[in-house]
Amino acid sequence: KADSTLSNKSLKPLQDIRKHIDEEKSIPAIAYGLNQLNDAIDNSIGLIEQEKGSDDKKSKPIKDFSPTSAQKKVYIESEQDIEEFLGDLRSQLQAALSLGVRIRIK
């Protein structure tokens, strides 16, 4: 459990950006706010890891990964479709890990 100082340092920027996005009416401004939010999440995770002494993990780059990138079909309709999807997903994740990155599922 994080102490209140660490909690405030990591959560306050996220709350501020969320408040700004909630008040925004412009789609481009909302999209920009979401990008800022993703950066702030990375910073908050870094703060928490630094505080908890997880420097070895922080040194690895982070690669965003979307499971839909392994999708070859619009619908999964059979057990074979499931196996093909999971096999492709596994291969892509293993390839990313072999590059020495941390994977964030999006």
Task: Indicate the topology.
Layout: H1 4-23, H2 27-52, H3 55-58, E1 62-65, H4 79-98, E2 102-105
Helix pairs in contact: 1-2
Give the beta-strand count: 2
The oligomeric state of the chains shown is single chain
Backbone structural class: mainly alpha
Bin the helical content.
55-70%
The N- to C-terminal Cα distance equals 25 Å
What's the average pLDDT?
87
Poorly predicted ranges: none
Shape by Cα distribution: flat
| Order of strands, widest sheet | 1-2
Instruction: Count up the helices.
Output: 4
Radius of gyration (CA) equals 18 Å
The biggest sheet amounts to: 2 strands, parallel
**Helix-strand pattern:** HHHEHE
Strand content: 5-15%
General description of the model:
- This protein is mainly α and 106 residues long.
- It is built from four helices and two strands; from the N terminus they run αααβαβ.
- It has a two-stranded parallel sheet.
- Strand 1 (62-65), helix 4 (79-98) and strand 2 (102-105) form a beta-alpha-beta unit.
- The mean pLDDT is 87.
Summarize the structure.
The chain has helices spanning 4-23, 27-52, 55-58, 79-98, and strands at residues 62-65, 102-105.
Fill in the keyword field for this structure.
2 strands; flat; two-stranded parallel ribbon; 106 residues; mainly alpha; 4 helices
